[in-house]
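Tutorial, part two.
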Amino acid sequence: MNSVNTTKTSSSSSFTKRSDKAHNDKFVLQYALGGLLYCPALNPKAAGFITSKKYAGLRSVSLCLEDSVGDNFVEEAENCLFNTFESIYRELILENVRKSELPLIFVRVRSAEQLLRIYEKICDYELLTGFILPKFDRRNAASYIEVMTEINSGKQNIYCMPILESTEVIDLKSRLQAITEIKSAVDTISKLVLNIRVGGNDFCSRFGFRRPADRTIYDITVVRNTLADIFNVFGRDYVVSAPVWEYFGTDPDGQWAKGLRAELALDRLNGFIGKTAIHPTQLPVINESLTVSEEDYKDALSILNWHDGDGLAVAKSPSGGRMNEVKVHENWARKTVTLASIYGVK
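Running the prediction step on this input gives:
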């Protein structure tokens, strides 16, 4: 097996989001979103917090034109979005901020037509990482794919992140066929798909559910089963991000944070990487959950730097407490080393 040269990182990541070559490495970038901060595009303060480094741990932001904006305010929200990009670009020109200090910026749109219109207005700023495609399903997949292919025919590499949250995905009668067909559609532009995202709250709303702060999304059986099916279909080929946690607060030991940590632990256990954040206080908790334990890091390096001179492909871990098997654990090891390079080692 080829040797992998990886240096142990501290808890403070050295990953830079735009100046580093990793920004153009999809394998690395897909793990680097951390907590994706959800912000209505109507927010006139968006440019300020994006450029001021106000929120520690802000790695990515979603400027939303969809559910967070009333149907009668879409045009106003689009204009506000354009002003936000112009303001960020002005700060760069004035050298008040560097590109490497900006979070990854995504725009959540309502339709493929809006996506193209928005892109044509903001593409020259070269600030956009990609678009978020809500309620992505069999009805709109073709139109989204056509537009994503069109805008990537130029010099920029613009990613997308489909959100699976439609009724056909939660409905048991249609789920398997729907997810399978959606996956086939997504695969046609796989190089442009940064993450697959899931709408936990949308799934809950179909049944009138809302989890309390002391329970996780995995306690709601019908939603848990849906998440498992989505991951089963997509998880081998894409990074799948976990659903939003709707509680927040200023007390890091409050119930909101305890509940979030409990759900994050189950997210990781079930393979989900990253999470949508609806408040800045959630960001440190989400990012901390993505740091790698020292034991995992050492095991991952041992597996990726395996020397099979004695013919063995299995051995006890450096700590002596568990088994490392090259063929079984190689995918896990690559993911673990990548996360460590971005979020650090505990």
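Residues 112 and 144 are 5 Å apart (CA to CA). In part three we will examine how such features are distributed along the chain.
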